[in-house]
Design a protein that fits this description.
single chain, mainly alpha, 3 helices
Length: about 90
């Protein structure tokens, strides 16, 4: 799957252009992979907690976006009296 390349599991994110490096941090798995890398290398506790908080905030953001998206779709379906959104 092409999106697997943007997680940093196959090769380091630092090999991407700067713009794509910044965008990859919006993906939830990136920070988890960095924490897993720390388990096998040098452990930086401050960075660990920052990544953990970042992962939790990313997950929370995805949940909030999903909640409002489902509410929007539900509202449109009720207005149209249909299961179809579009």
């Amino acid at each position: 799957m092409p999106s697997d390349f943007f997680f940093g599991a196959n090769f380091p994110i630092t090999q991407f252009p700067v713009v794509i490096q910044k965008l990859t941090y919006l993906l939830p798995l990136v920070k988890s992979i960095q924490v897993a890398d720390m388990l096998f290398g040098e452990m930086n506790w401050i960075r660990f907690y920052m990544l953990l908080v970042g992962e939790l905030l990313t997950g929370l953001a995805y949940c909030v976006i999903g909640f409002f998206l489902i509410k929007f779709i539900e509202k449109k379906a009720v207005q149209n009296a249909s299961y179809d959104v579009l």
